[in-house]
């Protein structure tokens, strides 16, 4: 694995799509339509997403209290399960479907898929929150050159392939 820049014959664009902008289906449809238009123009697009508001909803439904320390969600083991279920499941698959409805081709990924995002624990006070240490650029290259838009949720994998919650902006920066 390497964090070296990707080399493509065309342009590559990394788009970070935050969870707050996903609340309104009309806005979401417009955002995805624009991202697909860019991809269909020949650019190699990687779509990175968060999903904080949807995570908050799922935590509340399960009676799990949200805790934040210095702007980052504290992610204990129980919360990590909800974060992964929400981001890699519901949010990611909804975005992949939206890309296809808008005329694009996408594959949804978690950072644990294909060891896409290797990460390390940020600090004990946040629990299972991490930062990206390596990106499997070969997997992105395979998808992009095959005509697919990778739709990546902000879950990384530690050395044991256990999940870590990573800020979506951090993931976008690491991939870019």
Structural class: alpha/beta
Number of strands: 10
Radius of gyration using CA atoms only: 16 Å
Q: Report the helical percentage.
A: 25-40%
Q: CA-to-CA gap between the ends? A: 15 Å
Major sheet: 4 strands, parallel
Work out the strand percent: 25-35%
Strand order of the largest sheet: 1-2-8-5
Average pLDDT score? 93
Taken in chain order, the helices and strands follow as EHEHEEHEEEHEEEH
Q: Uncertain segments of ≥5 residues (pLDDT<50)?
A: 1-9
Shape: globular
Put simply, the count of helices is: 5
Based on the model shown, name its key terms.
176 residues, alpha/beta, 4-stranded parallel beta sheet, 4-stranded mixed beta sheet, 5 helices, globular, disordered N terminus
Outline of the structure:
The protein has helices at residues 25-40, 52-61, 77-101, 137-145, 168-175; strands at residues 12-17, 44-49, 68-69, 72-73, 106-109, 117-121, 129-135, 149-153, 155-157, 163-166. It is of the alpha/beta class.
Characterise the protein shown here:
The chain contains five helices and ten strands, in the order βαβαββαβββαβββα. The chain is of the alpha/beta class and 176 residues long. The strands form three sheets. The protein has a four-stranded parallel beta sheet with strand order 1-2-8-5, sandwiched between helices. Strands 6-7-10-9 form a four-stranded mixed beta sheet. β1, α1 and β2 form a beta-alpha-beta unit. α2 crosses α3. The longest helix has 25 residues. The chain starts with 11 loop residues before the first strand and ends with a helix. The N terminus is likely disordered.
């Amino acid at each position: 694995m390497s964090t070296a820049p990707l080399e493509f014959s065309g342009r590559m664009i990394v788009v970070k799509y935050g969870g707050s902008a996903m609340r309104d289906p009309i806005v979401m449809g417009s955002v995805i339509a624009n991202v697909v238009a860019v991809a269909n123009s020949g650019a190699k697009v990687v779509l990175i997403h968060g999903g904080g508001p949807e995570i908050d909803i799922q935590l509340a439904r399960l009676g799990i209290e949200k805790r934040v320390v210095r702007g980052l969600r504290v992610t204990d083991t129980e919360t990590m399960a909800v974060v992964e279920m929400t981001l890699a499941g519901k949010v990611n698959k909804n975005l992949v479907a939206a890309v296809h409805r808008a005329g694009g081709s996408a594959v949804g990924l978690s950072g644990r898929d294909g060891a896409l995002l290797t990460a390390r624990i940020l600090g004990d006070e946040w629990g299972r929150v991490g930062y990206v240490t390596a990106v499997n650029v070969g997997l992105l290259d395979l998808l992009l050159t095959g005509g697919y838009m990778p739709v990546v949720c902000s879950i990384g994998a530690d050395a044991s392939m256990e999940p870590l919650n990573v800020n979506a902006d951090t993931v976008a920066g690491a991939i870019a």
